[in-house]
Amino acid sequence: MKLETLDKDGTYHIYNRGINGEPIFLSEENKKYFLKLMDKYINEEIDILAYCLMDNHFHFLLNIVSEGDIATQILSNLFNAYAKAFNKANNRTGSLFEKHFKRIRISDEDYLRQVVVYIHLNPKHHFGIDFTSFRYSSFNAILSDKDTKVNRSEVLELFGDKENYLYVHQFKNDIMNEQLTLE
């Protein structure tokens, strides 16, 4: 499978999961360490719009500011550093992730909004967890005034303001609740 290259000024949904669907995060400490590495590796070359760390997979929504090969190397370094640390801590060897990270280029603003919400609702979708209190997604970082690597101003501009950001997330959550009730 030929992977789409990352292009400068492109917006991408980046995701991957554990090999054979196995967990890549066994504890909260694993997720905290991954976020620490994210802070270390992702710099002004890449803008983070959204993220979510689930037990066996992760999602990023990124704007590529630099040349694509530089951004690809930054992401590879992040994922490799985490995999090496995870393997060492858990006395394991071999691949942690399924092949290369997957990427989907996003060029439509409506789809971009949908992906932000999709990423943030992942805890609800996979585990029935309240996405508003989930600690390992960017949902609350966008609402907060605390320092973050997430480009909150760009995300809020995409939704118009905080109120609409919240409204759209809650609306999609309500739809998911209805679908679960019907099943």
UniProtKB/TrEMBL annotation:
Q: Which InterPro entries match?
A: Transposase_17, Transposase_17_sf
Q: Name one GO biological process term.
A: DNA transposition
Give a Pfam family name: Y1_Tnp
What residue stretches are annotated with the Transposase IS200-like domain? Answer: 7-122
Domain of life according to the entry: Bacteria
* Recorded coiled-coil stretches: none
Q: What is this protein called?
A: Transposase IS200-like domain-containing protein
